[in-house]
Design goal:
379 residues; alpha/beta; TIM Barrel; 8-stranded parallel sheet; 3-stranded antiparallel sheet; 15 helices
Length: 379
């Protein structure tokens, strides 16, 4: 009995996007879905109760950061991540691979794993497929990620080929080292950059290992959006229809819709909370920077079409005042709004799939949001 099960519900006749449900040991969630990121076992400034009020069924936590602080053994002693952070719904943990490659100034990749320096204090550390599994088994997440090599963009075909081959070997080692397959599902990560041949090879290798789910890695790392969409178009059909598909690190509204149209089920990104801390808000009319002086006497909500706690109770002028005074409550309000906006957007996407009109919804949303305009501001 696998810990993770994907239930297919229907395909959008207009686009081919799919509606489904993922069942985990800590409940089920509907897909396509967005996963708020709680890097250090907390979604910044948000309580678990607030996330539940937004109908978040799954959040993401970060293996690398929790390994360094407080340490995976402490989380294990606490009874696992769910008890430690008082969250009784699903949790996905990444493998730590992306942080090793993005945060460390020094790293040396070997077949056994990666030598690198702790970005906090400079200590030498080593992370391998086996260690990544040990940490995630201790954390007790519902969905774990295989340890993969995260190549930069752009990278040469030759470099990417070696990287894909190593990622496949590491994936096999992860499967062997995984100690709790009955209550933690392990996803493989398809790599290969923008090269279709390598994506095909990576997908073939991983599908043969029969993971309960698959992620598409190596995107949203600086490549243009048309390249990301093209890669998705030839990658998602390579993955099994009866397993969930997860696009890592993607959270802008346009990319969520375009990813769903191309068959993706799960997304995550720090974007909504990161930009919220600078006063940038997602609204039905587009990007709004509430710190701007023009909102000093604007007593309307951030988004007149939003029914979130922030928009029902507080004005742009008040939130601007809080942000200008560095009051934490301002960041809480903008973070709540942005997370609600994306979770609500995904519910609208699911409803459009039910009604076989996701293509129409995309056009309406892009027009209203301003993505169709020349020089449109994105995040």
């Amino acid at each position: 009995m696998t810990a993770i099960r994907y239930e297919f519900i229907k395909t959008c006749k207009q686009t081919g996007a799919r509606l489904g449900r993922v069942h985990t040991p800590h409940g089920s969630f509907d897909t396509p879905t967005f996963m708020p990121v709680g890097t250090l076992a907390t979604v910044k400034t948000m309580s678990p109760e607030e996330l539940k009020a937004m109908d978040s069924g799954i959040i993401l936590s970060n293996t690398y950061h929790l390994w360094l602080r407080p340490g995976h053994e402490i989380v294990r002693e606490a009874g696992g991540l769910h008890k430690f952070m008082n969250w009784d719904r699903a949790i996905l943990t990444d493998s730590g691979g992306f942080q090793v490659f993005s945060l460390s100034d020094f790293r040396r990749i070997e077949e056994e794993g990666v030598h690198f320096r702790n970005h906090l204090n400079g200590d030498k550390l080593f992370l391998s497929p086996e260690k990544a599994m040990e940490i995630q088994n201790a954390l007790g997440s519902d969905i774990m990620m295989a340890f993969d090599e995260c190549p930069p963009f752009p990278a040469t075909f030759e470099y990417m080929k070696k990287s894909v081959e190593r990622t496949s070997r590491w994936a096999e080692r992860c499967l062997k080292a995984h100690e709790r397959p009955q209550d933690q599902g392990l996803f493989g990560i398809v790599q290969g950059g923008e090269f279709e041949e390598l994506r095909r090879q990576s997908a073939k290798d991983l599908v043969s290992m029969d993971f309960p789910g698959y992620a598409i890695g190596g995107l949203s790392v600086g490549e243009p959006k048309d390249i990301m969409n093209r890669v998705l178009e030839f990658t998602t059909p390579l993955l099994p229809d009866n397993k969930p598909r997860y696009l890592m690190g993607v959270g802008s509204p346009d990319s969520l819709i375009d990813g769903a149209i191309r068959g993706v089920d799960m997304f995550d990104c720090v974007l909504p909370t990161r930009i919220a801390r600078n006063g940038t808000c997602m609204t039905s009319q587009g990007r709004l920077v509430v710190k701007n002086a023009k909102f000093a006497k604007d007593f309307g909500p951030l988004d007149p079409n939003c029914d979130c706690y922030t928009c029902k109770n507080y004005s742009r002028a008040y939130i601007r005042h809080l942000m200008k005074c560095d009051e934490t409550f301002g960041i809480r309000l903008t973070s709540y709004h942005n997370l609600h906006f994306l979770l609500n957007l995904m519910e609208q996407v699911r409803q459009a799939i039910r009604e076989d009109r996701l293509g129409d919804f995309r056009e309406e949303f892009f027009e209203q949001y301003g993505f169709n305009k020349p020089n449109a501001k994105n995040f």
